[in-house]
């Protein structure tokens, strides 16, 4: 079966006044449909850089990132943007909502780079996504009036409204209380059982039993998975 995401010998270097800094060092990994993988490791180990590459927000210095079997290395920025819009969604720790827009309007923003759907269809799908995360009754409430847990659920609704093949999340429970974090993890559990591939960075060891896989980063390298 073709992986949803394949990282093949991925290396990433950044320029600095002291010279090139190698943040990722030959990372190899596959993520398949239905995988729910934790990405762990100390700060500075390369987790965020790996997520940015998987999201096609950046390109590797060496190696290749394949999305649904397609090598993204030779793609132009416009092609990368189109592929990302179709296949990848991200959930961030800080929600990244527009505070003066409603929950529904924030979810609708996910369709900006996906032409072809009518506004009516976009709205119907957005309301359905909000219903799935338990916020149908708050669709018309401005984001700034929502709790932290509610804002994060809006962010999840925005991410899943297009049914992406790959969901990436960077510490999505880091700013939440225990009950809100449990809601988000339960939602992710439903999504991966429906066949979505999920890669989530986390520092919280208490969450690890919920995942089907644990990928550990150390100094830019991916440690072998425990059998």
Mind explaining what this structure looks like?
The chain is an alpha/beta fold. The protein is built from six helices and ten strands. The protein has helices at residues 47-54, 77-87, 103-108, 119-132, 148-160, 178-193, and strands spanning 5-14, 21-31, 36-40, 62-67, 70-71, 88-92, 166-170, 197-201, 213-218, 221-222. The strands form two sheets. It has a six-stranded mixed β-sheet, with helices on both faces. β7, α6 and β8 form a beta-alpha-beta unit. The longest helix is centred in the C-terminal third of the chain and has 16 residues, at 178-193. The relative contact order is 0.20. The model has no long low-confidence stretch (mean pLDDT 93).
User: How would you characterize the largest beta sheet?
Assistant: 6 strands, mixed
Structural class, by secondary structure, is: alpha/beta
Order of helices and strands: EEEHEEHEHHHEHEEE
Total helices: the number is 6
What value does the Rg take, in angstroms? 18 Å
Percent range for β-strand residues: 25-35%
- Identify the strand order in the major beta sheet: 6-7-8-3-9-10
Unreliable stretches: none
Using the alpha-carbon principal axes, give the shape. Answer: globular
* Count of beta strands: 10
The averaged pLDDT comes out at 93
- Measured as a percent range, the helix fraction is 25-40%
First-to-last CA distance: 21 Å
């Amino acid at each position: 079966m073709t992986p949803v995401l394949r990282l093949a010998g991925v290396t990433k270097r950044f320029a600095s006044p002291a010279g090139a800094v190698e943040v990722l060092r030959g990372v190899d990994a596959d993520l398949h449909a239905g995988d729910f993988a934790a990405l762990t490791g100390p700060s500075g180990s390369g987790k965020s850089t790996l997520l940015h590459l998987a999201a096609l927000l950046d390109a590797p210095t060496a190696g290749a990132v394949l999305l649904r079997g397609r090598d993204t290395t030779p793609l132009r920025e416009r092609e990368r943007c189109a592929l990302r819009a179709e296949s990848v969604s991200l959930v961030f720790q800080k929600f990244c909502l527009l505070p003066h827009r409603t929950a529904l309007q924030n979810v609708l923003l996910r369709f900006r780079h996906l032409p072809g759907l009518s506004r009516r269809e976009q709205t119907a799908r957005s309301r359905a996504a909000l219903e799935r995360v338990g916020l149908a009754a708050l669709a018309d409430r401005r984001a700034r009036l929502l709790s932290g847990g509610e804002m994060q659920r809006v962010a999840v609704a925005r991410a899943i409204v297009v049914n992406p093949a790959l969901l990436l999340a960077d510490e999505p429970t880091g700013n939440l209380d225990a009950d809100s974090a449990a809601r988000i993890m339960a939602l992710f559990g439903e999504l991966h059982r429906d066949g979505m591939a999920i890669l989530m960075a986390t520092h919280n060891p208490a969450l690890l039993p919920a995942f089907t896989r644990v990928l550990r980063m150390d100094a830019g390298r991916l440690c072998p998975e425990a059998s």
